[in-house]
Amino acid sequence: MPMNLTQKLIASHLLEGDMQTPGSDIALRIDQTLTQDATGTMAYLEFEAMGCERVKTELSVAYVDHNTLQTGFENADDHRFIQSCAKKRGLLFSRPGNGICHQVHLERFGKPGKTLIGSDSHTPTGGGIGMLAMGAGGLDVAVAMGGGAYHIAMPQVTLIRLAGKLPAWVSAKDVILEVLRRLTVKGGVGRVMEYGGAGVASLSVPERATITNMGAELGATTSVFPSDATTQAFLAAQERAADWTPLAADAGAVYDQVIELDLSALAPLTAAPHMPDNVKAVASLGGVRVNQVCIGSCTNSSLQDMLKVAAILRGKTVCPAVSLSIAPGSKQVLQMLAENGALGDLIAAGARILESACGPCIGMGQSPNSGGVSLRTFNRNFEGRSGTADAQVYLVSPETAAASALTGLFTDPRSLGVMPEIHLPARYLVNDNMIIPPAAPREAAALEIQYGPNIKPFPKGEPLPEALEAKAVLKVGDDITTDHIMPAGAKILPYRSNIPYLSKFCFAQCDPDFAAHCKEAGKGIVIGGANYGQGSSREHAALVPLYLGVRAVVTKSFARIHAANLVNAGILPLTFADPADYDKIEPGDALALQSIRADLKAGGTVMMKNLTRGESYPLRHSLTERQLAILLAGGLLDYTQSTIANQ
Ligand code: MIC
Ligand code: SF4
Prior knowledge:
The chain is 29% helix and 18% strand.
């Protein structure tokens, strides 16, 4: 049987499960892991709680790139904690300043044909060089570091068949925005987006990585490109020729869905406030005044992107009404810009150069002015994520960003005339001096892990009770993001290791008194709409509600990583059998799930009584046998400990 690329990657790592049944549980061997600091502290606390001496993967890297604004001791303590864990437990440590995890991993560590999970939803960036790279909760990454399998639902595979070549001034960002326009932020759920067709050859590795990176916004399990001569040249230019293997779908491979996309027919696009799928033509916004432009993030911070921006800005000045900030994605990118003069062009034009980190993308500085229009080359424009509640954030390509920074108006870059030519280097500047190797096992035993006063124990789930009576502590609509559930930003992010403190901000945007309501209720159930928990992989969006007493979340549907995080934390995710029942529940209603354990084990419907209204609603679950066992045990940590103990 001819196989598509996704099937090949899965088949070569399959430990358990049936690839023929989409949606069924499959277990994969994980070759590489990555963490970043905002989710990493929790992942390493969990790894420590598992009691493993050393990581068992081929390669695990701990990055520091998110919480780099140090306005107190908290973030610096977290960095030190992660560094000490990496040294002792056998991980490479990428120091703050070395760059954004996904950009650095692509440059220095990713390998075609390998599996990678990362405690960050944009881990699929690695799909740009033919990896099966997926975002996961911190606990799933901790388990994989300990040598455990990663479980996912067997995905359906969508082929996005690319034809033609991108026109001048149109780039990879416009490709993924077009896919988002067609499929929406729910369109990729349960799917791997596999790119193929004659158009693939025209895209560079950084361009492919932009596309796979932002496949996260489709809700896809991951996205992947073949590994071809372009991949080979990229790895050779990174002095990693030996890491290349060719990979492609077999001729005649079958797909669950095929989407045709002609690159040559694309025009510059933007995602308008406040969702990545609210896509419009840049030309249709011509004339809208722009206050801020931010260039960078794991989506668009490669050397190629930066060289394009520098070429557009060369010899010009940023519009006086615009604040332009630029964060090159890695030390490699920044140093190469410095050495070839392009950094001088950016500075001369008036760009505010930021360190190589996530920065404004996660609200770590550069919040726009009140009601400000901010054009960003990032991947998420959720309301309030920038740190300014009423900001209007648009997602754009580097070309559109640079053009608009010059004019001060939303500008179609095609209006700038002939596109300046840029050349990618035959050799990147390779200097891994910001990567600290782990201690040898013998020395590691004597090393201490360094905690800090802001690093608090995390909450642990309890085994599922036979019956649960709880209040509907909150009711929210469709497309609720993990940024709604557990906001980020410069003021809150330093407390990612302190769940009790974080809990004050849980659902702040939806209900500022959420924490108080939970306290009053004792036990809570959250009612949600469709695609609940989309966006980030942060398990804090499960751990904090757990801490506040949330025992179940009942929705119309869930986003993949968040549903897994709820199970891992020991919170029951259920869906309405009849979505119309969603309308019948009001916040504050007393709800009851009777005989949950028995209902779940029987596999069918779970009944939820509304004691306030005297009604009953049938609920469904899509829990696998393993997930059921995890919930019955009170969460993945207890489940893992008990399975290790029983071995
Ligand atoms: C994001 O882009 O939302 C983040 C911040 O990178 C998150 C991780 C986190 O919340 O720490 C993600 O994408 O998973
Ligand atoms: Fe960092 Fe933004 Fe990428 Fe998340 S999306 S990893 S915050 S750059």
